[in-house]
Amino acid sequence: MKPTDIENPEYFHKVVDCQYACPAHTPVPEYIRLIARGRYSDAYMLNWESNVFPGVLGRTCDRPCEPACRRGRVDEEPVAICRLKRVAADFKEDIKDRLPSIPEKKNGKRIALIGAGPASLTVARDLAPLGYEIELYDAQIKGGGFMRSQIPSFRLPETVLDEEVNYILDMGISTHFDHYVSSLKEILDKDYDAVFIGTGAPQGRDLKKLPGREAGDANIHVGIEWLANVAFEHTKSIGEKVLVLGGGNTAMDCCRTSKRIGGKDVRVVVRSPKSEMKASPWEIEDTEHEDIPIYENHSPKEFVTENGKLVGMNFEKVEAEYDENGKRSLKPTGEIVFMECDDVLMAIGQENAFPWIERDIGIEFGEWDMPVVDETTFQSTNAKVFFGGDAAFGPENVITAVAHGHQAAVSIDLMCNGIDVKERLEPGTNLVTQKMGFHEWTYDSPVTDDDRFVVPLADKIKSLSDRKMEVELGFDLEQAYNEAQRCLNCDVQTVFTTDKCIECDACIDICPTDCINFIQNGDEDDLRSRLKAPADNKEQDLYVSSDLKTGRVMVKDENVCLHCGLCAERCPTTAWDMQKYLYNVTKAGKGKEAGKACAK
Amino acid sequence: MSFIRPNIRHPQLPVNDIGFTRADYEGALSTLCAGCGHDSISASILQSCFELSIEPHKIAKMSGIGCSSKTPAYFLGNSHGFNSVHGRMPSVATGANMANRDLVYIGVSGDGDTASIGMGQFAHVVRRNLNMVYIVMNNGCYGLTKGQDSATADKGSASKKGVPNPYSSIDLCETAIQLGAGFVARSFSGDKEQLIPLIKAAVSHRGFALIDVVSPCVTFNNTPKSTKSYDHVREHMNATGTFDFVPLKDEITTQYEPGKTEEITLHDGSAIRLHKASENLDFSSPRSAMNEIEKYKEKGEVLTGLLYLNPQTPDTHELLGTTSKPLNSLSDKELCPGSDVLKSINSSFQ
């Protein structure tokens, strides 16, 4: 193999599994260390810079970082990254004076944001401090988008959401709430310099063709609409017997909400096997904790009504079958199951809908009637119109919407400065030794043995009787410290300098996970087959040096490196060094300063 | 800020024939200098015992005093150990071996512990052909007392102090061959590919097995003028050949052309298959071994690998006609057969 190019910003970035998996590339280990040191406000601000809603995400994030976490590969469970983020939000001091200042003198550019969800708010956050005048439109009466309408208060208290939404709205954003934009043309006619569309995927799927759908309409609800009605207190109760159709996170929110506003016999009914439900495992766990049963392999057949009122549903039991390629098909068994109910909530998916966008204003629509949007610049075929969040490529999650918002803001800023939106700057990176002295590093290099700490929950009886009472209590400071110490500090990289190595083998001998090898070079498959310990996780790179004096090369399997620093500790010539790698996605207007911000 | 080895290991560590992973053969974290050759030798001993699938409690680690003699703390943490007096490891090992002949005895010593204060003990344990592996971690200096030249430092070699050593050096391999050892080898801490099969073969050899391992002292003796530095040894190392250790359980099936490849069956039925660097080498001849060693020495080079092997030498137990069982497995009656037996023994000497 060729020597690894560690100058490529993506090489070490990939070693920081959590940060790499995060759509917004939040520097996770860095903020976890700040939490361990009790610097909650600093940890919060580091998050805020990157993901804008630490308090919200610390409770509701889809956590792509956690399945990626290295600890999950060497230990039973990953670090509770998401809930540590919440710790930063819960224990921070007043940070208002640390928010960016908003210039009194504007730069003369006007931007319209359609939809007040996480994507639009991120664009606002990035552009307002640069002097842009921003106008925000949303059909709801308050900002937050789906974070407000879809996520129940027992998972995300309103105060937390309000606080983080207001940090942005207070940046001098002109808001037009309770204002449904029914024509993009009208907006474009107002001569904005750019328009950002972050309207989400607002249409919940229905079962229009199922028999009885019309007759039972009064008690059949589309999940996301129903959740919004509960959030805005238009709906205050539900029948005692509730069937929730669907196996995603919305279904989990629907059933748990039902249980809090009158539902007694609440059931989740899923077509697929339980193991293939789309909901996050922890949300399924929370649902089951509240004694809500999940019926798998039940395909809806019919809404059953009596005298024009819904009385139940018929389901046909199915069996999952898999073909040679592992593709699943659900085979009907012919067995019909009747379940009584007063209300049905359909949480079987969401779709995009752009009835308000005229098709003759230069915005091309492609497959599934989705706008054609560039995946890097988020620009549509109308140069002034940008899309982000669920509106761009279909339903994802909050953190993805934030990542889109940052990139769209970069594009808008470039365009408004007359620069090609494709001329984007590389991320700001920084690699600095962490050695302080003999056996002394700036980070806590020892690896703790603790298992993942469980977040304490509120009393079940109490929380089920109050829709607004938060179920999760969050870590206390001691738990937070101990959980933070489980982090392996993967951003502290093992950097190898070939010229300094005397091939004494000390690093090989000390490495607790047998990552390091000095062997004859070969191609990747050959090298992997000859390493000291199995190296079959090809998603993880091999770090290969240039030729050493003996003609061999150093090959390190990044897969299970604990970043404990023992190789550097035992290296007599500092050929190994532990160096902290910071990787900051370049934000709007920060191109030139990104490197500096990193060095801090 | 501390120096703590994590408890986490590679999740797919290979398992040996008796169900142990390499981690089961680990000891405490080394406190030697970073980059010390001794740590590599420790790792090689560990690896060899893992590969040989020896139960850790069937091994006894014996040592004297010195940097080298500290190392038994750093490997085989589940085995027996005795850190004895300076230069007196052979006596303690002899005693232990007499009491329990069923254990694998791995003696670890240094050039000071063996060639200076322990020279007499060393000479006699070789003569008695005690069934043990005797590993010398040879760095040519007294690392624990700030790097004075030791008795194995080559004449003219200079350590960190910069003064060339005026004295002739003791060659432990030649000494051992001369005194009748059955297994003599030399290796280098920086060459595990050679060292590990050597240790495995030495463990399987019955009788005294010496491996003199050049092990650079990074702190005091890894200088450009030292003949025991990493660079010097790498540049001047010549192996007698390479070999595969074939454990007893693996049936020997491959046939080799005679000449450069030679197969020697050890006492326990396992074998070593030698791929010799030269056809002229005769591992069964002390004279050939001495000649070869001296030949390379004259050129300023180090000859490594297996130097001499005679698998059929009788060990101490055989020489003394001792009991075939460990003493701890004998009953009181066997250990103390009574006055009548004593009387008959005494009378046999009259």
Describe the overall structure.
The complex is a heterodimer of chains A (600) and B (350). Among the domains of chain A are: 168 residues, FAD/NAD(P)-binding domain, CATH 3.50.50; 146 residues, FAD/NAD(P)-binding domain (3-Layer(bba) Sandwich), CATH 3.50.50.60. Helix content of chain A is 30%, strand content 19%. Chain A contains 23 helices and 23 strands. In chain A, strands 3-2-1-4-15 form a five-stranded parallel sheet, covered by helices on one side. Chain A starts with 8 loop residues before the first helix and ends with a helix. By secondary structure, chain B is of the alpha/beta class. Chain B has a single domain, classed as Thiamin diphosphate (ThDP)-binding fold, Pyr/PP domains (Rossmann fold). In chain B, 30% of the residues lie in helices and 19% in strands. In chain B, the strands form three sheets. Chain B has an eight-stranded mixed sheet, with helices on both faces. A three-stranded antiparallel sheet of chain B has the order 10-12-11. The longest helix of chain B is centred in the N-terminal third of the chain and has 15 residues. Chain B is globular, with a radius of gyration of 21 Å. At the A-B interface, strand 18, helix 20 and helix 22 of A face helix 1 and helix 8 of B.
